Structure formats: structure tokens, C-alpha cells
């Protein structure tokens, strides 16, 4: 694993070459060009993350580097069948991105409340340039990792959701990102969600594959939640098991706002999620809720951060993992409580069930507390299903395989239940049930 | 003559290589209530677990015939489907599994086993409602996860409630009285008594005579050091209450304790 982790120009060269032709062809405003140039220069400097870096100790990016970098710079016009990816009974606004570019034909936009924008970033840059400029790349750090730098270099399209002051979008907004088989193998997505004061919305991001090929998706979602706004963000990743998925969610949370992040990860060969919540005002209430369910040789990594920069904020985190076969999981949960953040209430719980002897989990809670009047708790467990509970089920006539199914499903269900959208819960229930069938042997 | 339900012949059993049961003989017929009493560590709960088929409890000798079949060869779930029920001393909490859902799954396993059609949620609710009255269970308990956050008394009532719904041929009640106040004890005992029929039977495992004021046994057996050392009618329980276990085990306990 170590030899490939040396940075060489060779690894970044393909990306730099692709960037050069990309920057020549795209007619964009100067501020965006500068942003991209800044991205590529950070990427050249940082390269792909290496396992000698603290944040990447357990996750090798070797396989991602081995994939020749061929970005999908323009829509190939594919129109995949969406049926498997739609949530039954979900009829709200829907944006569909095929290989990183908005598909007008597949998207659906009902009439929206005054001033609300649900569109793609590429159009918003043209029609609402100043608004986009005021927020884009203001929250996520371009030099956070080689991946975020690379993402910034190739900013082109993604979803843009803008909720003006006091506006509520009643129906959940569904953003679907589909990868198809084609010449390109890399999808770059940049999403921006801006919720002004007192606004409210529920946003679902679904990542899925219509094809079988190995595709690398690199996505950054920035979310700005202003005072007293309420945002529920649900990310669901079920890309094919050859794929690579690297995602950053960066949320800035202002006073009195409510923010919930759900991350459900069942797909991809390697999936890495960085979810960072920064509380920049008092009385923020935020939740990080996650479930990963993997088998084969899948590798899933969640790095989360609750950054308590201000007093009187609550952050509650619940992550459950189910790992079968030879899969590997990583959970790294950081809680920062800065000097001023008195009366912080931060809870973190990470639990995982290993369904096979060969599955592994590396779990690391990381608490850094600089204030003295705070409540911070964390707990991490890794283990097998409770044998007593299995026997209890069997003593009531339920056979062992069904008992395992029941208990594992219940374990996953605890996370699913925290999602407030019934259509999402129902869809996930089914997917998780099917996935468990693969992991549990009769 | 009532039919023989279970016949335990010279049963010995180990846990982790340690011999706990050392030659138990016991026959239970339909319509009978047997009490098994004995001091702590005598092997009472082990007998319950061996009958239910818990892993790690190894039968090393003798045999158990249950409704004419070799019980030891049967998986725990098969035993349950054949009508054997163990009310746990410490019922297990199962977070995230709804109490009604769990019970319906168990109920339908038995129906499938008998070649009957599975019952849907609506019809099952009717069965549940009737049995809930018997044990004075609050509605809310059925909406909660199995045993999760239940008080000790609620857990025991839930066990007897499951028993009422599953309607077993042979029930084994393991220390069902422990942790119950007198009101809960009466509710549980009333439930058990109402479920009694000429075609089923119970084995009531208890340390104290108290429960036997409410569930009147036909036979009382004293288990000590892995053997039944005395059997008698219900009056034996009263004698034990009065004189203590030393009355029977006296000369051994001086050295053992």
C-alpha cells in the first residue's frame, strides 16, 4: 500500500492536462476562473490524499488514482431509466443530473414559492451570478484535501437551491445524480444550498448508477443555513460496486437554526464522506445521523465534524454500520468545542455490527474540548449481534437466519426512523431489507 | 388417563464443561402443574434452558422425550413451534423491534409449522387485544420495542402475555415471581391460571413458595445439586416455606456453604 502513495507528477498529470483543456473551452466569469485556477494549484500541491496523512490513514486512494482521469465535461445526452431511483409517493421538485450535468428532460419543477430557486449551478452562474459568487466556495475549504481542490478546479455543474428569507418549500426536493456507462469515468459535482433566515426545506441527494462501469464521483455540497432556518439534508449513496465516491458536505449553521444531516451509504467500491458542521451562532440544534451497509470488498469511510464555535449549541450524532463479507468501515467523529462554546451539548454514538469474521471497522471518536462548562459524551461499539437476543427469538419459534434479519434490520431501522420524510423511509427500508438479504446467509 | 407430555430420564448436562444437572427424572402429563423448587445454584434455571435448547448447555446423558420425540435433537425454534415455551427469568430487550410485530412473527411461525395460513396484522390485533385484557397490559406496551425500557414487572407480564398468545402445550416459567410486587404477582398468576387447560401443562421454577399461593401445583419437586431429592404434593412447598431448604439438604449444606 505504501509504494503507490508517493506523490508523483504522473498521478496528478492527467488531471492537470484535463484542466488545461477544460479552462480553455469554458466561457465563464473571471471570478469563477480564478476559483478554478486556485483549485488546480492546490491540487497540484496536495496531490491525492495519502495514507500517511492523519485523515486518510485507513482509506487508500490508490484505486481511484489508477482510474485514468477522464472527466465528463459535457452532457453525453444519455437518458437512463430513472424508475429504480425514484421514491414512490415523492412528487416534489426534482432535479436530475446525468453524468454531472442537468437533464432538463428528466427533471421536474412544479411552481415554487416566490423567490425560491431550484436549478443547476451552471444556469445560476449565468442568471444569478452575484448570488452564487457570494456563497460558492465560501464554506468548504478548497485546500481541505486533494479531492476538494480537484473538485473546485472542475466546478461546472451541480444543484443550486436558494431559499429566500421566510420561504418554505413544503415538498422534499429530490436531487438525483446518475452515472452512466460512457467514455468519461469521472463526474465532478458542486452543489450549493443557501437557506436564508427563517426558511425551511428538506433536500434529498441520491447518488446512483445506471451502468456497470467504474465511475469516480467527486462531489462537494456547501450548505449555508441562516438564523432560524430549518434544513433536513438526506444523502443516499447506492452507486454500483465498482464505483468510487468521494463527498464533502460542509454546512455553516447560524443562530437558532435546525439542521439534520442523514448519510445512508450502501454502494460503491470505495465511499468516503466528510461531513462538517460548523456552528457559527448560538442555540443551533443539529443532528448527524448515518447508516452504512456494505459487503464484498466495499470500503466505506465517514469522517464527521461538529465544530462548536459558539455557546449553547446542541449536536447529536448517531452512526450505525453493518459490515459483511470482507468489507471495511471507517468512522472518525470529531467534536470541537472551542473556548467560547460554553453550555455545549454534544453527543456522539457510533455502533457497528460485523456480520463476518473478515469484516473490519476502524472507529475513532476525537474530542477536543477547550471550554469548561460543557456536556460531551461519546460511545463506540463494534461487535456481533447479541446472542441472547438471537436465542430469545428462537425460543419463540423464529429461526436463526430470520432472527439475524430481524435484529439487523432493527439496528438499521433505528437510523432510518430519524428521517422525517415517509417516502424516503419507505424506499430505504426496502433497499436495506434487500441488501441485508445478501449479507445474511440462511 | 391424561397423555404424557414430557418425560425426562436420567438427564445430565454441562455448562462449559461443568456438570450442573446430574441425573434428573421427571414426567409431566397434560393438565398438570409441576413446581420445581430449590436453593440458588441447584440447577433450576439450567433445567429450563436445557429444555428450551440454549446454546452452551450440553446434554451429556439421559434423554428427554417431548410428545414422543427426542427433544435434544430439536433446534430451539422447532421446540417452540412444537408448543414448548420458556418464560425467561431475565427477558431480553430487543431495541428497534416492535413488540406486536415480534409476537406476530412468532405466532405465524407456529401457524406455518401447523400448516395453517399466516395471520395478517388486523386479525392478529384482535387476538392480541383479548389476551392483553387477561394480563391488564396497557396499549402503549404493544407499541414499544420488545422489552426495551420495560420495568421488571412489565417484562414478566410481557412474558406471560406472549405465552397467552402463543398458547403453548408445555410452559416453563423460570422464576417468574422474582422482581414482582404482590399486585403484579397476582396478575401474572391469574393469567397463568386462566391459561391452564386439560391439554396443556406447566413447570413452575421458583425459589420461594410465595408464587405457589396463587398458582397451585399438583406436584412439587425439590432440586438440589443437580438432582431431584424429594417430590410430593402441594403441601411439600408449605413445609419448605416453614422449615427452609436445610430441612431436606441440611447435612450437606453445612459443608457446602
Explain the overall architecture.
The complex is a heterodimer of chains A (about 450) and B (about 260). Chain A has about 450 residues and is of the alpha/beta class. Chain A has 9 helices and 19 strands. Chain A has helices spanning about 10-25, 30-45, 60-65, 120-125, 130-135, 145-155, 385-395, 400-415, 420-440, and strands spanning about 95-100, 100, 115-120, 160-165, 175-180, 185-195, 200-210, 215-225, 230-240, 245-255, 260-265, 270-280, 285-295, 300-310, 315-325, 330-335, 345-355, 360-370, 375-385. Chain B has one domain (about 5-255): 3-Layer(aba) Sandwich (Rossmann fold), CATH 3.40.50. In chain B, strand 9, helix 7 (about 180-195) and strand 10 form a beta-alpha-beta unit. At the A-B interface, helix 7 and helix 8 of A face helix 2, strand 7 and helix 3 of B.
Describe the structure in brief:
The complex is a heterodimer of chains A (442) and B (257). Chain A is an alpha/beta fold and 442 residues long. In chain A, 24% of the residues lie in helices and 36% in strands.
Question: Which features would summarize this protein structure in a list?
Answer:
heterodimer; A: 442 residues; 19 strands; 24% helix; B: 257 residues; alpha/beta; 4-stranded antiparallel β-sheet; 12 strands; 38% helix
What fraction strand of chain B? 25-35%
Query: What order do the strands of the largest sheet of chain A run in, or round the barrel if closed?
Result: 2-1-5-7-9-11-13-15-17-19
- The percent of residues in helical segments of chain B reads 25-40%
Order of helices and strands of chain B: EEEHEEHEEHHHEHEHEEEHH
Number of strands of chain A: 19
Using DSSP, what is the number of strands of chain B? 12
Low-confidence parts of chain A lasting 5 or more residues at pLDDT below 50? 1-7
Q: Helix count of chain B?
A: 9
Can you tell me the CATH superfamily of chain B?
Answer: P-loop containing nucleotide triphosphate hydrolases
Q: From the structure provided, what is the oligomeric state, counting identical versus distinct chains?
A: heterodimer
Amino acid at each position: 500500500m505504501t509504494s503507490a502513495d508517493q506523490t508523483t507528477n504522473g498521478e496528478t498529470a492527467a488531471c492537470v492536462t484535463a484542466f488545461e483543456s477544460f479552462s480553455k473551452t469554458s466561457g465563464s466569469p473571471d471570478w469563477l476562473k480564478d476559483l478554478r485556477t486556485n483549485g488546480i494549484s492546490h491540487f497540484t500541491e496536495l496531490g491525492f490524499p495519502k495514507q500517511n496523512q492523519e485523515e486518510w490513514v485507513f482509506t487508500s486512494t490508490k484505486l481511484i488514482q489508477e482510474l485514468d482521469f477522464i472527466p465528463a465535461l459535457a452532457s453525453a445526452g444519455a437518458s437512463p431509466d430513472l424508475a429504480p431511483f425514484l421514491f414512490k409517493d415523492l412528487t416534489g421538485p426534482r432535479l436530475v443530473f446525468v453524468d454531472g450535468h442537468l437533464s432538463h428532460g428528466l427533471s421536474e419543477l412544479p411552481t415554487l414559492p416566490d423567490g425560491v430557486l431550484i436549478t443547476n449551478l451552471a444556469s445560476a452562474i449565468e442568471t444569478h451570478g452575484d448570488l452564487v459568487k457570494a456563497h460558492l466556495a465560501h464554506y468548504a475549504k478548497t485546500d481541505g484535501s486533494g479531492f476538494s481542490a480537484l473538485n473546485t478546479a472542475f466546478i461546472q455543474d451541480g444543484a443550486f437551491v436558494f431559499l429566500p428569507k421566510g420561504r418554505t418549500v413544503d415538498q422534499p426536493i429530490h436531487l438525483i445524480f446518475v452515472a452512466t456507462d460512457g467514455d468519461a469515468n469521472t463526474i465532478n459535482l458542486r452543489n450549493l444550498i443557501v437557506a436564508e433566515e427563517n426558511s425551511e426545506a428538506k433536500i434529498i441527494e441520491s447518488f446512483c448508477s445506471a451502468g456497470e462501469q467504474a465511475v469516480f464521483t467527486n462531489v462537494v455540497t456547501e450548505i449555508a443555513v441562516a438564523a432560524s432556518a430549518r434544513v433536513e439534508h438526506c444523502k443516499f449513496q447506492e452507486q454500483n460496486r465498482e464505483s468510487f465516491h468521494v463527498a464533502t458536505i460542509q454546512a455553516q449553521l447560524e443562530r437558532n437554526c435546525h439542521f439534520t444531516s442523514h448519510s445512508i451509504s450502501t454502494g460503491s467500491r470505495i465511499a468516503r464522506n466528510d461531513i462538517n458542521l460548523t456552528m457559527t451562532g448560538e442555540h443551533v440544534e443539529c443532528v448527524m445521523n448515518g447508516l452504512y451497509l456494505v459487503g464484498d470488498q466495499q470500503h466505506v469511510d465517514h469522517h464527521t465534524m461538529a465544530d462548536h464555535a459558539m455557546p449553547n449549541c446542541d449536536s447529536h450524532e448517531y452512526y450505525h454500520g453493518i459490515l459483511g463479507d470482507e468489507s471495511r468501515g471507517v468512522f472518525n467523529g470529531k467534536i470541537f468545542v472551542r473556548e467560547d462554546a460554553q453550555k455545549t451539548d454534544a453527543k456522539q454514538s457510533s455502533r457497528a455490527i460485523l456480520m463476518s469474521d473478515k469484516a473490519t471497522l476502524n472507529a475513532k471518536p476525537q474530542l477536543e474540548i477547550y471550554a469548561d462548562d460543557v456536556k460531551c459524551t461519546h460511545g463506540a461499539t463494534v461487535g456481533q449481534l447479541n446472542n441472547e437476543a438471537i436465542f430469545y427469538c428462537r425460543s419463540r419459534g423464529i429461526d436463526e437466519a430470520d432472527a439475524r434479519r430481524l435484529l439487523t434490520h432493527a439496528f438499521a431501522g433505528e437510523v432510518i426512523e430519524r428521517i422525517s420524510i415517509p417516502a424516503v423511509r419507505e424506499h430505504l427500508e426496502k433497499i436495506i431489507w434487500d441488501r441485508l438479504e445478501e449479507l445474511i446467509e440462511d | 388417563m391424561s397423555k404424557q407430555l414430557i418425560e425426562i430420564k436420567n438427564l445430565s448436562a454441562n455448562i462449559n464443561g461443568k456438570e450442573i444437572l446430574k441425573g434428573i427424572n421427571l414426567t409431566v402429563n397434560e393438565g398438570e402443574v409441576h413446581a420445581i423448587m430449590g436453593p440458588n445454584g441447584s440447577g433450576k434455571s439450567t433445567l429450563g434452558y436445557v429444555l428450551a435448547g440454549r446454546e452452551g448447555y450440553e446434554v451429556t446423558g439421559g434423554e428427554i422425550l417431548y410428545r414422543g420425540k427426542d427433544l435434544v435433537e430439536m433446534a430451539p425454534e422447532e421446540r417452540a413451534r412444537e408448543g414448548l415455551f420458556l418464560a425467561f427469568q431475565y427477558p431480553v430487550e430487543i431495541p428497534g423491534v416492535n413488540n406486536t410485530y415480534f409476537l406476530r412473527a412468532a405466532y405465524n411461525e407456529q401457524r406455518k409449522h401447523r400448516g395453517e395460513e399466516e395471520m395478517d396484522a388486523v386479525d392478529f390485533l384482535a387476538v392480541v387485544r383479548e389476551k392483553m385484557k387477561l394480563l391488564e397490559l396497557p396499549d402503549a406496551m404493544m407499541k414499544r420495542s420488545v422489552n426495551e425500557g420495560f420495568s421488571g414487572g412489565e417484562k414478566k407480564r410481557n412474558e406471560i402475555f406472549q405465552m397467552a398468545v402463543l398458547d403453548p402445550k408445555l410452559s416453563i416459567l423460570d422464576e417468574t415471581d422474582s422482581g414482582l410486587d404482590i399486585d403484579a404477582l397476582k396478575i401474572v398468576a391469574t393469567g397463568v391460571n386462566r391459561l391452564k387447560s386439560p391439554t396443556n401443562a406447566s413447570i413452575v421454577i421458583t425459589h420461594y413458595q410465595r408464587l405457589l399461593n396463587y398458582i397451585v401445583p399438583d406436584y412439587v419437586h425439590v432440586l438440589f445439586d443437580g438432582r431431584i431429592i424429594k417430590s410430593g404434593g402441594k403441601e411439600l412447598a408449605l413445609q419448605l416455606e416453614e422449615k427452609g431448604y436445610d430441612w431436606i439438604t441440611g447435612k450437606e449444606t453445612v459443608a457446602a456453604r
